[in-house]
Design goal:
Largest sheet: 2 strands, antiparallel
Strand order of the largest sheet: 1-2
Number of helices: 3
Helix content: 25-40%
Order of helices and strands: EEHHEEH
Shape: elongated
Bound molecules: zinc ion
């Protein structure tokens, strides 16, 4: 069975892109039955969005805290509770190692 190049329209940006014979073959070997919905560049940017732990789009809320070890102001990804020591990243790894 041979594959033929197809023109598909990207569902993201509306650009027409080529679904090449090699790609169709690749899809088939992967067991994908659907054609790609996005052009290569949109696929690429979505991928990097998802995997990139980028500096800007981290939705994680950070709480200000004071390091129990060195007294430095730091931020922790959880709400600091009284009675539980909070460490800055430097001290945290130290404390963790010494245990
Ligand atoms: Zn696109
Ligand atoms: Zn510290």
């Amino acid at each position: 069975m041979s594959f033929q190049e197809k023109s598909l329209q990207c569902s993201d940006c509306g650009a027409t892109f080529t679904f090449s014979a090699e790609e169709q073959e690749f899809f088939k070997t992967k067991g994908y039955t659907n054609e790609p919905k996005r052009c290569p560049s949109c696929r690429q940017s979505r991928k990097s969005e998802r995997s990139g732990s980028g500096s800007y789009s981290s939705q994680r809320q950070m709480f200000p805290a004071k390091c129990a070890e060195c007294g430095k102001d730091t931020q922790v990804p959880f709400e600091p509770r009284s009675g539980r020591p909070v460490y800055c990243s430097d001290c945290y790894s130290k404390v963790k190692l010494s245990r």
